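tokens incoming
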């Protein structure tokens, strides 16, 4: 456990009004990152059905739904890597503000889509903004709060709002579904998916008001003005000094996303509808338990980050139990016990989602100022968004058809158990190779 001297400033000064504004904006940004990501399962199918001709075969509809999911995620991950480079090149605040405006504007415009290609394009630009925002926000917050203890708290608790985003989008979708008829018509109709997409403009509204109060990262600004800011380089990530950090963090990020997309995110829509005793409300109920478990996991990570000095040990607090609990949840209750599954999926989300907050606290401590955004972006976007999300295809397309369950949902549950076990085994091994930060202070 940590000694108080390891985190100077544990009882430091209170936040100023500007710092509270900064934290509020960051929390809103993190919340709407997940809001936009989890919106896709809610709007994709009804949107595609409406935008394609009425007699379109089901397999073509499924193909377009898949494209909206995975093309947007892949595009976001690839362009998000470029966004990390731009964060190092042009500043944290400027890129952060631009990314939020991009994904909020794209989400709003997507609500007025007149074709499936227009919807796909705007979902891609939305995810680009989301992927860039995470990296810019983490680098910005880490450099604004110089005291290690204060920095850990700010990063931990603002990232916890990511899980609030899942609750918000579920509520927004419910409101849009029930009150769509009373809203202004769009293209002659009152489709709930359109209003749900438009709600993504919300994070841009406070940004317009608080932007004049937002400072740039002081360390980045000082180096830029002094002419001592080195130019970021993707190749530098693979030089001997950073190679191990680059590869291990990207792979570990991929394992977290792999379990999330290859198992947990499949539960409400692909597993629950096949369980005995399920009702039309069961997927939403399971989704609620899942989001609450993730929120509690993020809050627990934020609490423990102040008390466990070793970053490897902190990650293992969640990795080791997940290795046992997550596969068991999908092999047993996910196949035939809805009531137990609610609690099981909450436990699984608690252990996996907490790890996403871990990276926001860890990555700024292993890359210097000129490489911080680029390094964070490679781990989060190439490791997480590009490699990790492919696990859903592995589970549903490559593994599930070979399972011997009694229904499609049972096959997916069994496949999720197998895939998550393999991914978590890899993740636990990789923790032994995770570099420990050399200091609580950020490297310059």
């Amino acid at each position: 456990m940590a000694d108080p001297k390891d985190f100077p400033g544990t009882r430091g000064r209170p936040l100023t009004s500007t710092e509270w504004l900064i934290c509020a904006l960051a929390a809103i940004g993190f919340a709407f990152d997940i809001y936009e990501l989890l919106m896709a399962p809610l709007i994709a199918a009804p949107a595609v059905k409406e935008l394609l001709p009425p007699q379109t075969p089901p397999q073509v509809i499924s193909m377009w739904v898949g494209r909206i999911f995975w093309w947007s995620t892949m595009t976001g991950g690839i362009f998000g890597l470029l966004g990390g480079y731009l964060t190092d090149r042009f500043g944290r605040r400027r890129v952060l503000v631009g990314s939020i405006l991009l994904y909020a504007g794209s989400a709003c415009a997507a609500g007025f889509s007149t074709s499936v290609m227009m919807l796909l394009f705007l979902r891609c630009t939305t995810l680009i903004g989301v992927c860039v925002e995470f990296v810019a926000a983490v680098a910005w917050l880490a450099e604004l709060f110089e005291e290690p203890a204060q920095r850990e708290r700010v990063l931990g608790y603002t990232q916890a709002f990511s899980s609030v985003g899942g609750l918000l989008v579920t509520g927004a979708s419910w409101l849009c579904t029930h009150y769509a008829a009373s809203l202004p018509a769009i293209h002659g109709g009152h489709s709930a998916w359109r209003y749900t997409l438009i709600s993504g403009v919300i994070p841009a509204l406070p940004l317009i008001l608080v932007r004049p109060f937002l400072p740039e990262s002081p360390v980045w600004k000082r180096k830029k003005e002094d002419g001592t800011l080195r130019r970021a380089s993707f190749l530098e990530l693979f030089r001997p000094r950073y190679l191990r950090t680059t590869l291990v963090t990207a792979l570990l990020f991929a394992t977290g996303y792999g379990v999330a997309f290859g198992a947990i995110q499949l539960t409400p829509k692909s597993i629950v509808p096949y369980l005995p005793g399920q009702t039309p409300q069961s997927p939403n109920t399971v989704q609620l338990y899942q989001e609450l478990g993730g929120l509690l996991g993020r809050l627990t990570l934020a609490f423990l980050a102040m008390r466990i000095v070793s970053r490897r040990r902190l990650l293992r607090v969640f990795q080791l139990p997940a290795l046992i609990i997550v596969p068991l949840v999908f092999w047993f209750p996910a196949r035939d016990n809805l009531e137990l599954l609610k609690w099981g999926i909450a436990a699984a989300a608690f252990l996996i989602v907490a790890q996403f907050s871990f990276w926001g606290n860890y990555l700024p401590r292993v890359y210097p100022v000129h490489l911080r955004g680029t390094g964070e972006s490679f781990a989060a976007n190439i490791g997480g968004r590009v490699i990790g999300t492919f696990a859903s295809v592995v589970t549903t397309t490559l593994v599930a058809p070979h399972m011997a369950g009694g229904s499609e949902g049972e096959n997916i549950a069994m496949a999720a158990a197998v895939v998550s076990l393999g991914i978590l085994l890899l993740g636990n091994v990789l923790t032994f190779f995770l570099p420990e930060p050399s200091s609580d202070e950020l490297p310059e």
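note: The two ends are 27 Å apart (CA to CA).
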